[in-house]
Amino acid sequence: MTRKRTRTTNRAKWTAESMKEALSAMTSGRRIRDVARSFGIPVSTLKDQYKSGQSHEASLGRNSTFSIDQAGKGTNQSYNHDG
């Protein structure tokens, strides 16, 4: 059973919806710094997302090695160790 941990950082507090709204505000002609201030998204993050042409969800920490399906399949396997 997984535990629900409380968030201890203030990084990446923006949501995917606010990122999409911020990018659409930038394409409508608003300045990057004004958009960043009003949506609470760092300027560098807005620039990166705008240049890539895609809006990603905020991700913190390392990338996982296995997908959710692969991780679930690995727990039910037993290994035979012949010594």
TrEMBL record:
Where is it mostly found?
Answer: nucleus
Q: What are the Polar residues biased-composition ranges? A: 51-83
Which residue intervals make up region (Disordered)?
48-83
Query: Which SUPFAM superfamilies does this entry report, sorted A to Z?
Result: Homeodomain-like
Spell out the subcellular localization from the entry: Nucleus
Q: Which InterPro entries match?
A: Homeodomain-like_sf
Q: What is this protein called?
A: HTH psq-type domain-containing protein
* Species assigned in the record: Dryococelus australis
